[in-house]
Every structure is written in structure tokens, then in C-alpha cells.
Amino acid sequence: MARADRDAEFTEYLRARSGWLCRVAYLLCGDWHRADDLAQAAAVRLYRRWNRVSQADNIDGYARRVLVNVYLDEQRTAWSRFTFLHRDTIEREAPALDADASLDLRAALERLAPRQRATVVLRYYCDLSVEQTAEVLGCSPGNVKSQTARALTRLRVLLSPASAIELEGITR
Fold this sequence. Notes:
Pfam families: Sigma70_r2, Sigma70_r4_2. Helix content is 77%, strand content 0%. By secondary structure, the protein is mainly α. It folds into two domains: 1-89, Rna Polymerase Sigma Factor, Chain: A (Orthogonal Bundle), CATH 1.10.1740.10; 97-172, Orthogonal Bundle (Arc Repressor Mutant, subunit A). Helix 2 packs across helix 4 and helix 7 crosses helix 9 (141-158). The longest helix is centred in the N-terminal third of the chain and has 27 residues, at 3-29.
């Protein structure tokens, strides 16, 4: 494939799917600025491998896996814990049916462990099966099931009426 054709094809794909990548990244990290950085890093990795990526049966699946890997790689570094420990979140305007519930859910998602958050986002936002999620995360289906169960239990606790007061202090 000629470089100009390759670049045009990649640009077309990224123009169409960059908003989706940013939304998935936001659900993973909970910060729009950091989500933009994650999506950009994922785009760079996709571009480097575009000849192989463009031949994949499911380019969105490949891109999603790259994005999750970028997020999890970042979470493993000490720099991410230092850099993002005390951040002020700037929310973008987004249509929501229940803004309070959405904010509560986002605050609760931020309190999950990175792999649990990735599992919940992949299973319930990206609507992947257990097997597909296991493939993206590079683990067994049993691990996905246990991570999902732990994450949902933690979310139930965090979103219970007793925890609502605690979460209110985080989101405001």
C-alpha cells in the first residue's frame, strides 16, 4: 500500500472514530484531558501498525484493545499515580437523562481498580461478551467474570444511599 493511500485511509478512520475512542478513554480514566492523551497515544500506536490494523476483521475491536492496553500500561507506572492524584476534573457538556446519577456513576467508576474499571467499561459500555473482554485484556474468561463481579459489588456499595454523601463530596 502506498504511503499516501495508507495515510488517507488512517486519517479517514480516525476522523470517523476519534470521538468514540475519546469517550471510551474517558470512561476508563474519568478525566477528559487525560482521555484525549490516551486516545492520542492509542492513535499513534494504531498508525505505526496501520498496514496490519487495516487488514483486521474488526478494526474497532483492535483499536479498543490498543486503547485499553495504553490505559493499563499507564496505570502501572508510578508517574500516573503522582501526576493524576489530585486533579480537578473539567466536565464537557454531554446530554444526560439524569445528570446526578451520571455524576454519581462517574465518581464511583473512578474509585474502582484500573482492571475492574476496564472490565466494566468493556462489558457494559462497549457491550463485549466475557470472551471478547478476556481477549482484549489478555486474561481468562474466569478472570473477567471475577473482576466484573467484584467491580459490580463495589459499585453497588459506592452507589448505595449510605455512600451517596461520601460521593457527593468527590463530585462537587
